[in-house]
Amino acid sequence: MTKKMILLNASPRKNKNTAQMLESVMKGAQEAGAECELIHLVNMNFKGCMSCFACKRTGNKCNGLCAYKDELRPLLEKILAADAFVMGTPIYWSYPTGMFRNVIERLLFPILRYDLDEKTGGASKYIDKKMKTALIYTMNNTPERYDLVNYGTILAPDQQYMEMMFGSCEVLNSFNTWQFPDYSKYDSSAIDVKEKQWFRDNQWPKDLQAAYELGKRMVE
């Protein structure tokens, strides 16, 4: 049976770093035989959690799916029906984009019950969905500055919650990405363009290859 992968681009740009990483993931998955769909969230009109709590009402029929009906709702249904799910986002001002955050809220919160799981003692879930998932982060920071500004601490909860809801979640970071085709046209004297160029020439191809291998691995 053909496996299905849904990929979401949470960047406002549809053909730059984050999109290219997702395209490499998709290529790897497709070559491994998966059916893939890449969606650019910037094209969609949707909100984050509306705090209606319909998904927590006693006897609710949501079955782990957000009750709020907008353009994101059919996409959430596709994700929950898929075999693999990947979302990519650039890091803006130390955090993923608002689009990324809105999807995380709407995807994960409806799965969570406020009842205790008698076996684990932790929170229980409305559905037991097992799915390979991955989060891709592209960023201006170098690996050294990633640690200095505590990005690992900031980003860790999303991976943990994805693992909690779906059983697994890999993370792939791409550092010091190339933001502009010509830095001389921007106020960017604090940027080490030579270092940027080195990352673009030497590390970026490795990042794309790692994304390709991730996609292949997720559906094999």
CATH architecture type: 3-Layer(aba) Sandwich
Mean pLDDT metric: 96
Determine the N-to-C terminus distance.
12 Å
Helix share of residues?
Answer: 25-40%
- Kindly identify the CATH topology: Rossmann fold
Q: Could you say which structural class the secondary elements and strand pairing correspond to?
A: alpha/beta
Strand content: 15-25%
Q: Strand tally, please?
A: 8
Tally of distinct domains? 1
Bulk shape:
globular
Q: What low-confidence regions span 5 or more consecutive residues with pLDDT below 50?
A: none
CATH homologous superfamily (4th level) name: Flavodoxin domain
Annotation field: number of helices: 6
Major sheet: 6 strands, mixed
Radius of gyration: 18 Å
CATH class: Alpha Beta
Order of helices and strands: EHEHEEHEEEHHEH
In short:
The chain is α/β, with parallel strands linked by helices.
